[in-house]
């Protein structure tokens, strides 16, 4: 059985998808971009600020499912420019303990929704 997870503390979906789906003990988040959930404004000041907003959105989704970053077992990071990897990784890494960090892939893509620079999705298990 699946349970739809939603929270007003993360951006509302803009298409036929949900913020996350809980199946058993496994949570699958949709990709998050740097939309401020309160204003709907994209946060694109710089790559670190943008990445932090993405991670805050993911944190809100995890919390809505009664989970934390410690429950995350896999992440997928999509970036528009691999030259931003170091700065994205610095912010991303601040949300995890190195010893228990999840598996991950980071992929440069041609284009992301709303022309953002980074999108991240997660899988978490409770």
UniProtKB/TrEMBL annotation:
InterPro entries per UniProt: RidA, RutC-like_sf, YjgF/YER057c/UK114
Record-linked Pfam families: Ribonuc_L-PSP
GO cellular component assignments: cytosol
A single MF term (Gene Ontology): deaminase activity
NCBIfam families: Rid family detoxifying hydrolase
Homology family: Belongs to the RutC family.
Protein name: RidA family protein
Organism lineage string: Bacteria, Pseudomonadati, Bacteroidota, Flavobacteriia, Flavobacteriales
